[in-house]
Design brief:
Layout: H1 17-31, H2 37-56, H3 66-81, H4 90-116, H5 132-152, H6 154-165, H7 170-177, H8 181-209
Helix pairs in contact: 1-2, 2-3, 3-4, 4-5, 4-6, 4-7, 5-6, 5-8, 6-7, 6-8, 7-8
């Protein structure tokens, strides 16, 4: 159904038009050098980013309430540490935040795999618990699939990121990518089917090799992405 979010609305709260306007103004203030705008930005987007992080970390051991918080904090460090970053609107900012979260999870998954092989630098707190091996395998499988998709079509890869990792609607993603909604719908239908097929193939290969992969071959939080 058109207008549905990339995740269930019970999982990812969406800002109303008024709050989106507030965010746009804060981003404008930030671009113009307002030293207090960064604090206002964190206050406005923190809860939504934490909910988004919780979706990405779903399946981890219960009771680890700091895991989503840690992911959000690391994402903020990357976003604010990237000198020269300027976000024009909500879609642009959440796209950057979603990509930052994905990169962080990929880094942690690689560290966990290295630690399992006897290398690395110890445990990775974002990926702990009984399902950590499955989650690490899933995160790396999604990353590898997106890299392959990007080689063929960078716009479709970015659309997947905006929907799965930033939680944007198709309308928001279309505006962020500066394409029509009809184009975004076509790209989404193709890219979603392509990604599920790639992950299913990776799951089959993992089963033959005795490795762990998610049962349904989907990225975490993608259950509401059938629109």
């Amino acid at each position: 159904m058109e207008g549905r979010t990339a995740h269930d609305e019970s999982q990812i709260p969406r800002g109303d038009q008024n709050s989106a306007g507030v965010l746009t103004q804060i981003l404008a203030d930030l671009r113009h050098g307002d030293v207090e705008a960064r604090g206002r930005l964190v206050a406005v987007v923190y809860d939504e980013l934490r909910e988004l992080a919780a979706v990405h970390l779903r399946g981890e051991r219960t009771g680890h309430t700091l895991q989503p918080t840690a992911l959000v904090h690391e994402a903020f460090l990357r976003l604010f540490g990237n000198v020269g970053s300027h976000w024009e609107n909500r879609g642009h900012f959440f796209g950057a935040a979603g990509e930052a979260m994905r990169r962080i999870l990929v880094d942690y998954a690689r560290r966990r795999n290295a630690a399992k092989r006897g290398g690395g630098t110890g445990p990775t707190p974002l990926l702990e618990g009984p399902s950590a091996d499955t989650n690490a395998a899933r995160i790396l499988a999604v990353d590898e699939a997106l890299e392959r998709l990007g080689w063929d079509d960078e716009r479709k890869r970015k659309l997947i990121e905006l929907r799965f990792f930033a939680g944007l609607t198709l309308e928001e993603a279309a505006r962020t990518l500066d394409v029509s909604l009809a184009t975004a719908k076509r790209d989404w239908a193709y890219a979603k089917a392509w990604l599920y097929r790639e992950l299913a193939d990776a799951e089959d290969a993992a089963g033959r090799d005795g490795r762990t992969m998610p049962e349904n071959g989907r990225p975490a939080g993608s259950e509401g992405c059938d629109a």
